[in-house]
Amino acid sequence: xxxxxxxxxxxxxxxxxxxxxxxxxxxxxxxxxxxxxxxxxxxxxxxxxxxxxxxxxxxxxxxxxxxxxxxxxxxxxxxxxxxxxxxxxxxxxxx
Length: 95
Known about the structure:
The chain crosses the membrane at residues 37-56, 68-88. Keywords: Membrane, Transmembrane, Transmembrane helix. The structure is a single chain. The chain contains three helices and no strands. The protein has helices spanning 2-25, 32-53, 62-90. The longest helix is centred in the last third of the chain and has 29 residues, at 62-90. The protein is elongated, with a radius of gyration of 15 Å.
Protein backbone atom coordinates (compact mmCIF):
# COMPACT_ATOMS: atom_id res chain seq x y z
CA UNK A 1 0.00 0.00 0.00
CA UNK A 2 2.82 2.40 0.85
CA UNK A 3 4.49 1.73 -2.49
CA UNK A 4 1.33 2.60 -4.43
CA UNK A 5 0.85 5.75 -2.35
CA UNK A 6 4.48 6.80 -2.87
CA UNK A 7 4.18 6.09 -6.60
CA UNK A 8 1.05 8.23 -6.80
CA UNK A 9 2.77 11.12 -5.04
CA UNK A 10 5.73 10.81 -7.40
CA UNK A 11 3.35 10.89 -10.37
CA UNK A 12 1.68 14.06 -9.08
CA UNK A 13 5.01 15.78 -8.55
CA UNK A 14 6.47 14.64 -11.89
CA UNK A 15 3.36 15.78 -13.76
CA UNK A 16 3.64 19.25 -12.23
CA UNK A 17 7.36 19.66 -12.82
CA UNK A 18 7.32 17.88 -16.18
CA UNK A 19 4.52 20.04 -17.57
CA UNK A 20 6.30 23.19 -16.44
CA UNK A 21 9.61 22.01 -17.95
CA UNK A 22 7.93 21.08 -21.22
CA UNK A 23 6.28 24.49 -21.53
CA UNK A 24 9.59 26.19 -20.74
CA UNK A 25 11.45 24.06 -23.30
CA UNK A 26 8.88 24.97 -25.95
CA UNK A 27 9.11 28.66 -24.94
CA UNK A 28 5.39 28.71 -24.21
CA UNK A 29 4.24 31.43 -21.84
CA UNK A 30 0.75 31.11 -20.43
CA UNK A 31 -1.30 34.13 -19.45
CA UNK A 32 -2.27 34.50 -15.80
CA UNK A 33 -5.66 32.72 -15.84
CA UNK A 34 -4.18 29.78 -17.74
CA UNK A 35 -1.26 29.48 -15.31
CA UNK A 36 -3.70 29.46 -12.41
CA UNK A 37 -5.96 26.88 -14.07
CA UNK A 38 -3.22 24.54 -15.35
CA UNK A 39 -2.57 22.79 -12.01
CA UNK A 40 -6.30 22.34 -11.49
CA UNK A 41 -6.73 20.82 -14.94
CA UNK A 42 -3.80 18.55 -14.18
CA UNK A 43 -5.55 17.48 -10.95
CA UNK A 44 -8.64 16.61 -12.97
CA UNK A 45 -6.54 14.47 -15.33
CA UNK A 46 -4.81 12.78 -12.38
CA UNK A 47 -8.22 12.11 -10.81
CA UNK A 48 -9.29 10.25 -13.92
CA UNK A 49 -6.04 8.31 -14.02
CA UNK A 50 -6.15 7.29 -10.36
CA UNK A 51 -9.82 6.30 -10.41
CA UNK A 52 -9.29 4.15 -13.50
CA UNK A 53 -5.92 2.60 -12.68
CA UNK A 54 -5.77 1.97 -8.94
CA UNK A 55 -9.03 0.00 -8.49
CA UNK A 56 -8.31 -2.04 -11.63
CA UNK A 57 -4.78 -2.91 -10.53
CA UNK A 58 -3.75 -6.14 -8.85
CA UNK A 59 -1.06 -4.78 -6.54
CA UNK A 60 -3.45 -4.17 -3.66
CA UNK A 61 -5.99 -6.38 -1.93
CA UNK A 62 -9.55 -5.62 -3.01
CA UNK A 63 -10.62 -3.78 0.19
CA UNK A 64 -7.72 -1.31 -0.10
CA UNK A 65 -8.12 -0.31 -3.75
CA UNK A 66 -10.92 2.26 -3.60
CA UNK A 67 -9.83 3.94 -0.36
CA UNK A 68 -6.31 4.34 -1.74
CA UNK A 69 -7.64 5.62 -5.07
CA UNK A 70 -9.69 8.28 -3.27
CA UNK A 71 -6.69 9.14 -1.07
CA UNK A 72 -4.58 9.75 -4.18
CA UNK A 73 -7.36 11.86 -5.70
CA UNK A 74 -7.51 13.98 -2.54
CA UNK A 75 -3.72 14.38 -2.56
CA UNK A 76 -3.74 15.35 -6.23
CA UNK A 77 -6.28 18.12 -5.57
CA UNK A 78 -4.50 19.20 -2.40
CA UNK A 79 -1.06 19.45 -4.00
CA UNK A 80 -2.17 20.94 -7.31
CA UNK A 81 -4.58 23.27 -5.55
CA UNK A 82 -1.77 24.46 -3.28
CA UNK A 83 0.38 25.22 -6.32
CA UNK A 84 -2.44 27.19 -7.92
CA UNK A 85 -3.15 29.02 -4.67
CA UNK A 86 0.52 29.88 -4.26
CA UNK A 87 0.65 31.30 -7.79
CA UNK A 88 -2.44 33.36 -7.08
CA UNK A 89 -1.27 34.66 -3.69
CA UNK A 90 2.29 35.64 -4.54
CA UNK A 91 1.57 36.72 -8.09
CA UNK A 92 2.90 34.97 -11.10
CA UNK A 93 6.46 35.83 -12.02
CA UNK A 94 8.41 34.47 -14.92
CA UNK A 95 11.14 32.07 -13.95
